[in-house]
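I have a small job for you when you get a moment. Would you make up a two-line entry for one protein for me to read? No commentary is needed, just the two lines. Write everything out right here, beneath this request.
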Amino acid sequence: MPVFWVVAIIFVVSVVGFITGRARALQSAGGDARRLHSLPIYYGSNVALWAIVPAAAALIVWLLMQPVFVNSKAIETLPDTLLDAGSSIGLVMSDVRRVAKGLDVAVAQGALSRDAAASIGSSSVNIRDFLGSVGVALGSDVSPEVVDAAQLYRGLNARGSTLMSWIVLAISVLGAAYAYRRSNADFRARNVVERGTLGLLIGAASIAIVTTIGILFALLFNTIEFFKVYPATEFFFGTNWSPSFSGRGGLSELGVLPLLWGTFYISFIAMLVAVPIGLFSAIYLSEYASSRVRSIAKPLIEILAGIPTIVYGLFALLTVGPLLVSVFGKDTLNWMQGGTAVMTAGLVMGIMLIPFVSSLSDDIINSVPQALREGSYGLGATQSETIRLVILPAALPGIVGAILLAASRAIGETMIVVLGAGAAARLSMNPFDAMTTITAKIVSQLTGDADFSSPEALVAFALGMTLFVLTLGLNVFALYIVRKYREQYD
């Protein structure tokens, strides 16, 4: 049974449980809600929670554990000779999953019966052609061992999904029945529901923390594997980025310094564009603009934040790049050889970051107490002097936070860099040269069927960990600055 229908049935059970639980509680009180310990809605909510929460927890655990179990069982059936022939476990399992998907597609289209799919064993030498006829492409010939593993993979997934559906639905019904039997006038339903709601809120708040920890460990473990096959000194201090997907990384040069330089260079130019424009627009909107102008201008500026980054990338590639070439190209100053350059990506990225700086700075400036303005005016200061000497220093911690948020957004940008800055990893001071960033190379290193035991694939995780540590250090430094100035102006 598909997961969607399992969730839908659980929802129906919870609704029925809510109605019946509420009705049972009222019945036990003789129809008089005043004789109940809690409001009737709490009795129904208690039954609904017992129908949803245990079943949802079981469903999530099952969905997380089943792929691990099925993959391990499929890998156990693969002979060592197949893995020793140069194929990694990841690539072999990719073929296994594609064959299993092809068999499912063939059964769904009626091209193959279920019994035939279960017996299409090692004698099927034309399995690749057959799967291609039903729209599933395989990159290479499929060995009989892979077909056998795919059959096991498909069977275990089917049985696991069926078993999961029955177990989860049984837990939902049993939970609702248990809570329904407790629905009587003396039951403290409100206390139970409030504790359950508190637990759900704590769980929701913990998701961000657990996700962050999971991302950190995923990066850390794969980074450690990378440094086992590639020297850390060459990675951190190498000045050449030249990956080679042959010879198991023996010919690759994976120095991160050119990528770091391109990342910070493009981000620096973007901040040179975004910070002055964004801050000045925030000052105008909060201190000078009329309410009518503000109501029109601020939403228009914030529209920039809603434009997809791929659109900004196309704008850089088709408009900004050719415009810069016409000004700085061969026919004029001869500074720029092509439309893809650091300056192209930096200018467009700066435009994208304007609403981050402007909107946040505007809200922060507006939060400065009006008493500070009135006191400054009372001492004879002009409006410009009040803004420069009173308002901006008082709002400085929040403005710094807005700028650092924009900087983090710039460092993590990918599509504008791919389309506007090029793919060349080089150390150059010329802003009209093509360069690339860490995020762009992470995408390129993991594109396609990469062998995750090779340095060329594992380096993506090392790049991600490097970027994580740098942004973490940037945020810690920003927190120090914010606290220092906050103590001064609080």
The chain has 18 helices and two strands.
